[in-house]
Amino acid sequence: GLNLVVPISAAGRKFFGLQEMSRIDAMKQMWVYIKSHNLQDPEKKRNILPDEKLKQFLSCKDRIDMTEIPGLLSPHFAK
User: How far, in Å, CA of 21 to CA of 19, rounded?
Assistant: First the structure.
């Protein structure tokens, strides 16, 4: 489930500073990062404008919809 704590990828360990975490906690931490780095589009809050660190971690483009985040995080979790 979403609350299950599992090992995360090397990139995930570097980004979050943890060895393992739940998908729920990853989403919470992702939003802390997005808000603290002011990465939401001021015009359209659903859009995230990733900085270089986030782009590299999520392997994403210059603009993502917030609904894409769970799918972009998925490869960082053990199956």
Answer: 7
How do residues 51-64 score in pLDDT, each as one tens digit? 999 999 999 999 99
Domains and CATH numbers, the chain: 6-74 (1.10.245.10)
Phi-psi region of 59 (alpha: psi -120 to 50; beta: other; left: phi over 0): left
DSSP 74: G
Q: Is the pTM here over 0.85, yes or no?
A: yes
**Residues sharing a CB contact under 8 Å with residue 46, sequence separation 6 or more, in sequence order:** 65, 66, 67
Distance (Å) of CA 47 to CA 31, 43, 59, 79: 12, 9, 16, 28
